[in-house]
Amino acid sequence: MFETLSKAPQDKIFALMAEVAADARPGKIDLGIGVYKDDDGNTPIMSAVRKAEERILTTARTKTYIGVAGNKGFCTAMVDLALAGTVPAERVRSVQAPGGTGAVWVLLTLLKRAKPNGRVWISDPSWPNHKPMAEQAGFAVATYPYFDPATRGVRFEEMLATLDTLGPDDIVLLHGCCHNPTGANLTPGQWDEVVASLSRTGAFPLIDLAYQGFGDGLEEDAYGARAIAKAIPEFVLATSCSKNFGIYRERVGCAIIAGKDAAAADVANSQMLNIVRGAYSQPPDHGAEIVRIILEDKDLRAEWQAELEAMRQRMVGNRQALADAIRARSNSTDFDFVAQHRGMFSLLGLGVSTVEHLKANNAVYMLDDSRINIAGLADERIQRLADAIVGATH
Ligand code: LMR
Predict the structure, then answer these.
(1) Residue 250: helix, strand or coil by DSSP?
(2) Residue 376: pLDDT band by 50, 70, 90 thresholds?
(3) Domain boundaries, the chain
(4) Which of the listed residues 127, 129, 211, 241 should we mutate to test ligand 1's pocket, taking the one with most ligand atoms within 8 A of CB?
(5) What pLDDT, in 10s, does the model give residues 161-179?
(6) Is the CATH number of domain 50-296 3.40.640.10?
(7) Which CATH class name applies to 8-37+301-393?
(8) Catalytic: which of 30, 170, 208, 285?
(9) Ligand 1 center from residue 34 Cα (angstroms)
(10) How many helices (H) and strands (E) does the chain have?
(11) Measured between alpha carbons, how far is 256 from 207 in angstroms, rounded to an integer?
(12) At what angle do helices 298-330 and 379-393 cross, to 10 degrees?
């Protein structure tokens, strides 16, 4: 029967992960998949997470089903973390989802039911999984201008001009913060202009907030989502705990919807629950319970926030160190933009042949579009990476 199938394209992020693992060269530098790594190359379990897990181990009394929407306390806390009361609770509904990706999937499936003839607009470029996910949900996908390879910043005028041409059948997928793959982000003022455009056109916002706390801070990174929440009566928002709680493999995210009133929110929520039940019945609880415990406990929450802030500072420090090291070797400011970008990623703007050269000659691995994960760098590697980049480009 399977002869009816042809081979599906491999996800390039996970393909690169396998390539790195298969490379036996000592000192290889993995700038591929978006996971945070400490100076020893480990992705640590945060101490607040460890403590919450210990609490679960000693106090949990049952493994019975949790329900289709998942962990209710978790959902309430996640809505609060992202939106901080910017929408009245009676207009908001949420379900726990298997990771940020799962949340995006639930919401795309919901939007397809609501807007069968809709078109999804993603940034050019976007996370490599956005387009296939939107297509899998049955949508046509188009792009709005976003990254300017010349300045390595946002082509904001062009982005806005495109958004202004959209209408109510259009869904705009926006990266809430820490744009993946570019690292170039909207300023608060630019977010306000995007919100004004959405208000004018009636285009529908789908916000993917996968990196809250990794850019400029927990509150700062939610600026765009909250600006939309204050001004646009209906929107959907996917959040993730993979990065900011470091619980990648537990697969924890939240699919959040805001309706124009409580009745509209209830109807949309019933569809969301129907989608979940028909796909995987209900989400697993462990990771969500970790997050609930941390967010509801004052001390654990403070501990988590301090750990998250230390990770963020380290990424900002890595950015500056890499920009400085390249400048010192090349006598040029060509890569200074790395220090301005925020989040895990920066798009270096190297050609595929340079990316291949770095892989073959320096055991430096990045995505073929030259996206690097800045959080994968230790100081010694920053110096070697700077040598390799300058060697390949100057
Ligand atoms: C990435 O872009 O590397 C991360 O978001 C991990 C993933 O699931 O692709």
Answers:
(1) helix
(2) confident
(3) 8-37+301-393, 50-296
(4) 127
(5) 999 999 999 999 999 999 9
(6) yes
(7) alpha beta
(8) 208
(9) 5
(10) 14, 13
(11) 10
(12) 40
